[in-house]
Amino acid sequence: MGKFAGKTFLVTGASSGIGRALSQNIAAQGGRVVMIARDREKLEETASCMENTQNHIIVDYDLTDFDHYKEIFALVKKEGLCLDGLVHCAGIAEVLPLRVMNRSDAMKLFDIHYFAFIELVKYYARKGVSNGGSIVGVSAMNAHTPQKCMTAYAAAKSAVESACRTLALELTEKGIRINSVIVGGVSTEIANKMGGSAIAAESTYENPVHRQVLGMERPEQIADVISFLLSEESSCITGRAMYADAGQL
């Protein structure tokens, strides 16, 4: 049956990368996934590679549209579902040198990484939406290891981690755990656009990914870590940031 049998999880960024790998992981362990991303076609591609394809729900939605979040959760309720977990994988990583960075650029990163996460958590914590369960926010080593021209991205990821620590104090009263996962260089579509393995091979201060002693990570490896945090196996963990950085030492 799998450890997620009978459980439902909401995963953002499910159209590619870590979100897609996680959706497949949950489905393989008997769970149902509410998959959110902007590109419906890519979401359908994800669903086609999952166990019990027709069992999952596809929601094509731009998470920076903060006026209609309630419609996402109304759809979940309409399906007669109550959530057991939430994972925010959606995001963008932009190289922004200080000389060209402006408030609009920074806010675009904060909107998708931080404010979208907070909005999702707020709705998830409402009565009747979830069965308690576990929330996971995806952070990045950029928040801990400096990388040139990634100031806004690092700040947004730091905000996610801080939110998880403080929200744990509020959400424990509702039986909800919340943690973050700090990932290193992962071979995803975003990473490939930024140079992927080529960047990882460069031994420079600006590109610290080369220090990952276990090499470039795969999305499936990160999905395994998140799966652990969603499960009862991690029932004594909340308000923590777990490193899944391939040993970036």
Topology:
Layout: E1 8-12, H1 17-28, E2 32-37, H2 40-48, E3 57-60, H3 69-78, E4 83-88, H4 103-124, E5 130-140, H5 151-171, E6 176-183, H6 189-193, H7 196-201, H8 219-230, E7 241-244
Parallel strand pairs: 1-2, 1-4, 2-3, 4-5, 5-6, 6-7
Short summary:
The chain is an alpha/beta fold and 249 residues long.
Strand order of the largest sheet: 3-2-1-4-5-6-7
Query: Element order, helices and strands?
Result: EHEHEHEHEHEHHHE
Task: Tell how many strands the DSSP assignment holds.
Answer: 7
Global mean pLDDT: 92
What radius of gyration results from the CA coordinates? Answer: 17 Å
| Secondary structure: helix percent | 25-40%
Give the class from helix and strand content and strand pairing: alpha/beta
Q: How would you characterize the largest beta sheet?
A: 7 strands, parallel
Description:
The chain has 249 residues and is of the alpha/beta class. It contains eight helices and seven strands. The chain has helices at residues 17-28, 40-48, 69-78, 103-124, 151-171, 189-193, 196-201, 219-230, and strands at residues 8-12, 32-37, 57-60, 83-88, 130-140, 176-183, 241-244. A seven-stranded parallel β-sheet has the order 3-2-1-4-5-6-7, with helices on both faces. The radius of gyration is 17 Å and the shape is globular.
Q: Key features?
A:
globular, alpha/beta, 8 helices
